Amino acid sequence: MPENTGLFISFEGGEGAGKSTQIKILAETLRERGFEVIVTREPGGSPGAEAVRHVLLSGAAEPFGVRMEAMLFAAARNDHVEEVIRPALGKGAVVLCDRFLDSSRVYQGTTGNLEPEFIETLQRIAIDGTMPDLTLIFDIPAAAGLARARKRADDGATPDRFEKEELETHEKRREAYLDIALNEPRRCRTVNADQPQDKVTADVLSLVEPLLEKIKARTDVTQ
Fold first, then answer.
1. Is the pLDDT of residue 168 over 70?
2. Strand, helix or coil for residue 136
3. Residues placed in the known binding site for ATP
4. Which residues form the Thymidylate kinase-like domain (predicted)?
């Protein structure tokens, strides 16, 4: 296993929280500063995982139950970690990932009603020790996030099966994410996503910048 000299940041939150937009902005900012940046996503990110992504988001796996879906997510995550994330970190890159293991905890665990022990066992196998250095949890009231997601659909984007679910389900997921942030404060930071985009961007950068010196130090040691 290559030594981790990079920086791994995951972006989490409910539908319409603006994660993807902020990932693009942060990636551009870091590249301008001379960092190698890998932008990826889950489910997906590697060829094998992208094939699973289509099955999951289309709803094709839904008839087989949430337990099967959780196993598919874990299989896709393992391929993603082994083929993309871990090699990039070994080269000293900054990896920005749109969703990671916390999404499984929330979507399949909290609102899928799967046992926490089952979810955690799957995740332990899937990630094989590769945890984010920082997880940014984008918090927005469920109604506001869904309104954004539906506006995207009005603009031509096709809503996935998760965006079509009831407001109460989305609010439960929001609460679950906030619980994760509360229980894992060393890794997780909450970002108020219900504010102007430039303010969200500034908040994200303020949370990431302290870690940039860390990656520089790691890189210097290996040179």
1. yes
2. strand
3. 13-20
4. 11-203
Q: Tell me the two tokens of residue 83.
A: 């083929």
Q: Whose structure tokens read 């996935």?
A: 160
> Which of 144-153, 159-168, 182-191, 195-204 has the lowest average pLDDT?
159-168
Q: Which residues are annotated as a binding site?
A: 13-20
The encoded tokens of residue 174 equal: 């929001």
Cα separation, 169 vs 223, whole angstroms: 49
For the cut 60, the answer to whether the pLDDT of residue 13 exceeds it is: yes
Q: Tokens for 169, please give them.
A: 């389900």
- The residues with which 190 forms a beta bridge, in sequence order, are 137
Architecture field, domain 7-217: 3-Layer(aba) Sandwich (3.40)
Beta bridge partners of 12: 137
Q: What is the pLDDT of residue 132?
A: 97
Copy the structure tokens of residue 23.
Answer: 């990932």
What does pTM read for this prediction? 0.87
How far is CA 1 from its chain centroid? 23
Preceding peptide of 141 cis, ω within 30°: no
Residues 6+ apart with CB under 8 A from 9: 94, 95, 96, 97, 132, 133, 134, 135, 136, 208, 211
Asked if the model's pLDDT at residue 222 lies above 80, the reply is no
Q: Do the beta carbons of residue 146 and residue 15 sit within 8 Å?
A: yes
Domain spans, the chain: 7-217
CB 52 within 8 A of CB 43: yes
Residue 66's pLDDT band (cuts 50, 70, 90):
confident
